[in-house]
Design goal:
This protein is mostly helical and 197 residues long. The chain is 74% helix and 0% strand. It is built from nine helices and no strands. The longest helix has 31 residues. The two termini are 25 Å apart.
Length: 197
């Protein structure tokens, strides 16, 4: 996505808040691909990423009155995306837990709810990320929080694409290990199978 001049973006947002569909279509055209890439990093599925992208823009239109044109619009959209991704993970985790409990013929057993709720897992993930070495954490956050590509991260940090890849692999390995220590293996398996990491 080409960077849009801040003043032009502000004008677009003001028009969007006034229900201007042309402004909305321009925002959609500017941000659709970035939101799709960002969502895909979590769900690893084009169809799910496309659905989440549509939901982000539905949410944007529905709550357009609450947009603050003085704040970082890119961060605002990525926050909406993350929240919708987390809701989708929560829905899938509940479904997986339900299926698992029925497969084991233990209808009252909820392997996720009995140990931690979804918010606890996201807090645990945040702690695992905070434990990463500074450069690795910076690379991981640029990739996951800002949706930056490996090429973009390599350019920003003046490192090679292979080094970026190595940092991401190290991050994921560390987070998985952290979860293994702090959570039951059955729950960890569910979260890995849902591509949370």
């Amino acid at each position: 996505m080409d960077q849009l001049d801040k003043s032009l973006l502000k004008e677009l947002i003001i028009l969007l808040k006034k229900s201007d569909t042309t402004a909305f279509n321009k925002v959609y055209a500017l941000y659709r691909a970035k939101i799709h890439r960002f969502a895909w990093r979590f769900v690893r599925c084009d169809e799910s990423a496309a659905e989440l992208t549509q939901l982000v823009f539905v949410h944007l239109w529905k709550y357009k009155d609450s947009i603050n044109e003085e704040k970082d619009f890119n961060a605002y959209l990525l926050t909406i995306t993350k929240n919708l991704v987390y809701k989708e993970f929560q829905r899938k985790a509940k479904l997986a837990a339900y299926q698992l409990s029925h497969d084991k013929a233990e209808p009252d057993y909820d392997p996720i709810g009995s140990v931690m709720n979804f918010k606890d897992y996201t807090n645990l993930a945040a702690k695992a990320i905070d434990d990463l070495p500074p450069q690795t954490k910076k690379v991981f956050k640029l990739s996951r929080d800002e949706g930056a590509s490996y090429e973009s991260i390599a350019e920003q940090l003046n490192i090679s694409k292979n080094t970026v890849h190595s940092h991401i692999a190290k991050s994921l390995s560390h987070i998985r290990a952290y979860f293994k220590i702090h959570t039951p293996e059955t729950v960890l398996a569910i979260f890995i199978s849902l591509n949370l990491f």
